[in-house]
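Lab meeting, action items carried over

1. Structure of the two-component assembly. Owner: GW. Status: complete.
Input record:
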Amino acid sequence: VKLSQIGEFGLIDLIARREPKLKSTVIGIGDDAAVLKYQAPSTKGQEKYQLITTDTLVENVHFKLKQTSFFDLGYKTLAVNISDIAAMGGFPTHALVTIGLPKRVSVEQVRQLYNGINKLAGRYKIDIVGGDTIASPKAVVVSITLLGEVEKDCLLTRSRARPGDLILVTGSFGGPAALKFELGTRNLELRTQEARMIAKTHLATAMIDSSDGLVRSVLEICKASKVGARIYEDQVPIAKGATLKQALYGGEEYELVFTVNKKYLSKIMDKLSKVSVVGEIVAKGRRVKLVDSYGRMKALKSGGYEHFK
Amino acid sequence: VKLSQIGEFGLIDLIARREPKLKSTVIGIGDDAAVLKYQAPSTKGQEKYQLITTDTLVENVHFKLKQTSFFDLGYKTLAVNISDIAAMGGFPTHALVTIGLPKRVSVEQVRQLYNGINKLAGRYKIDIVGGDTIASPKAVVVSITLLGEVEKDCLLTRSRARPGDLILVTGSFGGPAALKFELGTRNLELRTQEARMIAKTHLATAMIDSSDGLVRSVLEICKASKVGARIYEDQVPIAKGATLKQALYGGEEYELVFTVNKKYLSKIMDKLSKVSVVGEIVAKGRRVKLVDSYGRMKALKSGGYEHFK
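Predicted assembly:
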């Protein structure tokens, strides 16, 4: 069996089989970040969790150097990790940066890459505490591991959505897909403030970032929460120039997808601008379905963005 | 300026320029692992630090698939990270595993890779709590980030060696270089028990693992501790089949190099078998020099193993 036949998500399941055994592990594989029972001693009585996540970008898989500057590459790699920490309700603290570099890369390009990382690290007060600089025969590779913290009562996972919850999203969808995944810092708005605001309301039941696409994000929440969902196509905020299909399956948006019980909708809408209700959570047996503007149920396309397929 | 002209260590200095700013950062870049002020709530009054390190192995840079099985590759990648945590006096707790895979790799090979990782993770009670599975156009890449813990009074860094200390090592040197860096789990003995034993004596002043070679390891301790050193060539334990040069500069041994004040030598030798005294720490102005069997000082070859050179 070749990798191209099972896809990225099948492989992740391969790893995930080994159950966490340490008491300090709250959540292992399967969410935007792992959740660990560690906290800084300075936390005055308020119980916190530690978050940890990692994301790697590979040349000609996730980006092309013709379209992406080294500065943007560094910025973006840290950004996608920050988005994962934010989607858990937390904030970032420490990063490890590993870069794999072919010999054709110049020192100035490496400096630009770190400038991109450091710009965002400075803005979010992230300490870069380690990493590894290695030779890579062909492709530029940037891999970042990011630590974060979250107050225990602000933690948001994928696994607590319940039937009767509404599905909300920030921003609009399909923009990066319409631009053919061209990367640029200007297009990458992080929803870190919104994520913290949502977490601090204690009203959301589940949250995820939409990096793998809106439909895939809803599917992941449903899988983890053991529920079904309806996505109303005519409610999905579509980015300028994008098609509905790109908005549903495109990915790379780094928006937030979260669930809130119906009765708290107005409370949460008061606190956030540019939030849209795109669907609702239903019982597991009713599966995940799209609903078009005539009210007709439609099956899903094989969801999300998979690198091996 | 091309990368090949400045080398790996120059690049790491490029990153390291940004000083850590968070109170939770005890040690950032520059040791075997970063040291953070986080601890599990279950630690009964005993103050601990958290350790974090990352290491990445790239096909045709760090290993060749003709010589290394996928099982050995997984095992080895986790092993080099465990060695870094051990060199700080600590023990490993949680890992994130990122693998980059070309399409030619089979699912069975990926399973073998995880089997290698899981075997060692099981032995050291490490929870694998996350990671990323990505496509890589050409080279197999395995990157692991490893967390650990260390009791505050057991922490060993590179930076506290003092003139009058002796330089001690576990095991013998030059074996992997003599075998032309061929990897194999059988050759990779980890000195985790010895490292913990050394840490618990509270007698060592500095420690490092010898992954970049014996001379490079002594140089790193000297740089961090602002001291000089003498390495006595005829005291270096040379592996069977290896030359003195391979023992001094070869690397890939994952032995421990540590410093202890002269007066505690017999105390520490009582607790450890297979430990050798290979040199001594001197004042900074006296630099780092090799001493041959006739007592003659010799200059160092450009030390250690650098991937870009």
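2. GW to write a short summary for the group page. Key points so far: The two ends of chain B are 13 Å apart (CA to CA). Helices of chain B lie at 3-16, 70-87, 107-123, 175-178, 192-201, 214-225, 244-249, 265-271.
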